[in-house]
Amino acid sequence: MLQLTKRTEYGLIALVHLVDRGGEFVSVREIGESYPIPRRLLAEVLKDLSRSALVDSQRGAGGGYALARPAESITVGDVVGALEGVPTLASCESLESAHAGGECNVEPVCPIRSPLHRIREGIWRQMQRTTLRALVQPTFQILSPTRHPLSAP
User: Fold this and answer.
1) Beta-ladder partners of 56
2) Cα–Cα distance between 37 and 18 in angstroms, integer?
3) What is the value of pTM for the model shown?
4) pLDDT value at 101 more than 70
5) Which CATH architecture has domain 6-136?
């Protein structure tokens, strides 16, 4: 099952906190006091997000981190890509598991690669569409507003 790393979860939490602060520079200490996140790991994650140009950093008194772009233009996919790289779902899609020749022996007849690839692509597309703003103000509607699935027809 696809699962985000703790680094990415902490990164998303920190970024949502920055969205809530409306462009102010926020210290690692403040974020760490708001959420039970190890400060050292949080600082490393924010440095990586800064290197990826998702956040700006400022040293000194009143320094910290702020979003480098509007929350509407930063996606979950941007964050995942910056902290983990593009996710893979099937082991045949990762370079580490490739055989010495660089290809999977089962690939030409594999019955699951194509469906798993479509699932992975669908998940990745959703990550690319979901912005930080959407995480702060979720508008997901899973059930139809007119009929609850447990109600009688």
Assistant:
1) 66
2) 15
3) 0.74
4) no
5) Orthogonal Bundle (1.10)
